[in-house]
Amino acid sequence: MRARIIDRQDLLKIVDLLTTEYQVVAPFRGRGRDTYFDVVTGANRDLIQLHLPNPYYPPKRYVFPQSQRLMTLRRNGDLQIEPYYDAPKRAIFGIRSCDVAGIYQLDQVFLKGLYKDVYYDMFRKNLFLVNVVCTDSELDMDEDCFCVCADTGPAARNWFDLQIMDLGSELLVVAGSPRGEALFSNDFFRQATPAHVEKRREILTDIRRRFDKSTSWYSAAIRHITLGQVTDETWEEIGNRCLECGGCSYVCPSCNCFTVSDKQVSENEAERLRLWDSCALSGFTRMAGGHNPRKAVHDRRNRRFFRKLAHYYIQRELSVACIGCGRCVNVCHGNVGMPAVVEIIRRTKAEAEQR
Amino acid sequence: MHSFNPTLTTCTFCGVGCGIYLEKSGGLITGAYPSMSHPANQGKICVRGWHVHEVASSPDRLKNPLLRVNGDFQEVSWQKATDFIVERLTKIFRESGPDSVGFLNSPRCSNEESYLLQKFARTVIGTNNVHHGGPLHRQNTIQTLIEMIGVPAATNSIGELEKSEAIIVDGIDLGRQLPTIGGRVIRAKLNGAKLIVTGSRRHRVAEQADYFLQIKPDTDLLLYGAMAKVIVDRGLVDYRFVRQHCHGFEAWLQTIQDFNLLAAADRCGIEVELIENAAIAYARARSAAILYSTGVEARGVEPIQALVNLALLTGNVGREGGGLMPLAEYNNLQGICDMGVMPDRLPGYRPVSDPKARKALEKLWGKPVPPNPGRDIWSMLGSGDTPLRAVWIDRHNPVATAALCDAAQVLEQADLVVLQHMFMTNTAKYADVILPLVAFGEEDVTYTSTERRVQIAQKAIDPPPGPIPAWHHLVIVANKMGARWSYASSSDVLDEIAKAVPFYSGISYENLGREYGRQWPCTTDKKLGTGYLFEDGLPEAGFQFAAVHRPPDAASRPTDDYPFYLSLGYSLYYWHRNVLIQHSETLRREYGILLLDYPEGFIEINGQDAKRLNIRDGAKVRLVGQVGSAVSTARVTDEIRPGTVFVPYFQQEIARQIVWTEGARKSNVDNPVFVRVEKA
Predict the structure, then answer these.
(1) Domains located in chain B, CATH noted
(2) pLDDT at A170 exceeding the cut of 90
(3) I want to staple B6 with a disulfide (CB 3.0 to 4.6 A). Which of A197, B21, B30, B228 is the partner?
């Protein structure tokens, strides 16, 4: 492990190093439980904290914005199409391990398929990820997160550039990429010892025990869904609690459906935008001509959980598309986020087996 | 806390007033997402809230004032547009008197612009012809609640639903209208509360009901009378509460003494046991809430009275987790009424006819207040009465509103139509002057949610050059007419509102900005606002039972010739016309699907009935009523109660032919209509 140790008071030196090359965003406290990523400036730099609730608006917005201009279309006699590329070099200082897995999931969709999405690629190449390990059960975790079930945390194993972990008196910094490792040439990084690694192991073991309030024990649900054993009645029970807001897709760090919209800006100019979309919405699968293969709400709900939990996808991506952040639990009006749905599937299956 | 991104603000779609954050980039609003800590929504919003940022950047928004010159609109300066208005208005009211002018606003108008609109009407022009374009039936709630409990607003907070042991949802499709409240209700039920849903339509929240009373249309009055009878007969009345705090109980008791439960259940079309169990569940709960619509699915006076009676019977007023929630589906329906945008009520609901009320405002405004109630919107935009010569409209779109079938004619013949709006609407085509206003996120203004929460909708970005805030339009014109209003900002307007509306006296931008707005009464000695009404003590004056008339038995029943109840309504089908919905790609798609699937409109019929009549989904059908008929397309859905036909309100043709005949203005809430359905 390419690990180093720094003193607590040297934490912001990492931010300072990054700001020479990147626009750095970090999480800040808002009102109540609300936290959000904001650009680090001289004015707010000293407010950066390691331990605070995970921002609700998912970091996928830095590689896949909620509303993104793709191109401008101009008519001056003939039609001119001008792509709009605006991908600043950006560092996320303080992305959680679960959310790192979300970025990984998006990489599979936008980069590893038949076509590479040029916009995503640009954002992604320019993105530097500083993962912060959740170690404070009061501040970092809330009762809805379940990264241990999703196997994405509390410490990401991969897919970050740097990882910072609070060992108490000191901070352990691990490099996950050559870009990250390059920072170790600075003198405030010193060698980590086996004792530090042991301390890390202790803290992680302890933290894993604290996820007792909300769990999503997938394995059985994965099996039932993959084998097509979940009945229509069960999906209807779930669908009847859904108010079709789209929130689960919007807040999910790994959801990536989008729609494209052309907006007339002036008489001879239009913009093409990419906008977040959601398979929860009834119009999502409606086709020209009127046919809608997923018209009923329960047909849309089953699609979501199939995408998240069916073995086919897990095998393809070598990870579960649900990264265990718990945002869907918070956003859902009818309490049919991932843990609740997994519970419903397991319960209804067990009840059916009893009969 | 320094931050320039994102902005915490209030969603301006419906009356919940969810806390949301707006993301900005490059001077544009690029995203929206919920606040986790806001007491009303706690991290949840509906599909509309997720897209509320898309309006500001719409390319077809109006930038400069438009003046109709020789039939066409021309962009003109603010100076020219407002001078034209002043000249024309002054001429009109000098020639024909102040009551030849009418003022209309929309339940989407902010508190500031609404307050100034009625102040302009009353002090600059001298008329009480001021009304909101919100639903007529909001008036019923205001009148009834003032008479029975003294305050025309929700008694409890949205967050308290998690403490309710029983919840009655009367009619309203919460999942589509106020999803955040729908979610609260669903989660309360999942936590053990008893959910009672009444109404003829099987909507999403009804699927969760412990007791779904799917009654025939317009039998709710009978149902609530029956429930009250059960509560009395089973000894579940909270007599201590009734004796100590209520008047009129004996008189009311007389009216239900000989109520026949079996007959009522039969008329309602449900099992009598269901009525009994629902009533018992409601009355046994330690705290029970009643939710009903005052807008889109509005109630007549008597059903509201019946609902309040139930709450009084069980002591659920002034109790945490209990109460009555008259729901506002439009973001500021509560606020505009608080501001007095009504022909017969002043800011704070005091009657225009009350000399003490007028005097208090005359003192504040330094101008006389006209003493006679003005014309309501039906009168102002109806073809029956003396036509107005000038009409000033703030955001409302009467021409597109089915219920106001004559609006276009009235506006056509008026000598001056001033419209304040963001886009060209159907009504804009009849305007002489259009004044563009700024979008959500471009100004600081306040709105009052359905739980009495006065909140700021924050400015997140600068407006584009051209448009100015709506409240400011009124200041410019008023001052050109000699008013001498000096409001440097919307905060100044709010400070005056605090002086004009007694239960807003503690409200200021500073106070509202501390947490998540304040729920009124928020007075100088109660600056933190009020969670639930009467939390500090029940009022001396007590509450009043209403002796509700039992609906006549024979008059309104279906016959063999006309066996189907015709139900007119809004729900999902209303919002597709909404100007804000039309400007979001996703919302336009979601709300427009039915119009794509049924391009010529539709009526809805239950699957069983369709099968029996051999009508397939998408087939043409004719609805034949006693006085007229209309042809439409059938949409077959099991949300509809068998034996009913549902017609969306935007089907103006059907409404005209079958319901609003002979210039009658009332909806079928008061006079049910029966039809037969034939293949066309």
Answers:
(1) 7-57 (2.20.25.90), 66-135+332-435+466-483 (3.40.50.740), 139-327 (3.40.228.10), 557-679 (2.40.40.20)
(2) yes
(3) B21
